[in-house]
Specification:
Blueprint (H helix, E strand, L loop, with lengths): L7 H6 L13 H16 L10 H9 L2 E2 L2 E2 L2 H4 L16
Antiparallel strand pairs: 1-2
């Protein structure tokens, strides 16, 4: 490797085959690779994509506290007795 490119993306943009650097390619082949890279770059998807609808449905049903999943027993915590009430006192 001659070190001309700092990243694999730059190497792909320049048409360099990162699998075997000892072989060189023709100008036409290089142009084809660069154009293929540019076309694929245009089609990149950065939006959220749901792959498993069943997992999403299950996650929506699970109890949460502040956005985090909790066990069913932790979902409805019992309010502690007020300091001023006499609920704690049993004569």
């Amino acid at each position: 490797a001659s070190g001309c490119c700092s990243t694999i993306t730059e190497a792909a943009a320049q048409g360099i085959d990162t699998r075997n650097p000892n072989e060189s390619c023709s100008a036409a082949e290089r142009e084809a690779r660069v154009s293929r890279y540019r076309e694929k770059r245009k089609k990149r998807q950065f939006e959220k994509k749901i792959r498993y609808a069943s997992r999403k449905a299950y996650a929506e049903k699970r109890p949460r506290v502040k956005g985090r999943f909790v066990k069913s027993t932790e979902a409805d915590p019992v309010e502690p007795a007020s300091h001023y009430s006499m609920e704690w006192f049993h004569p």
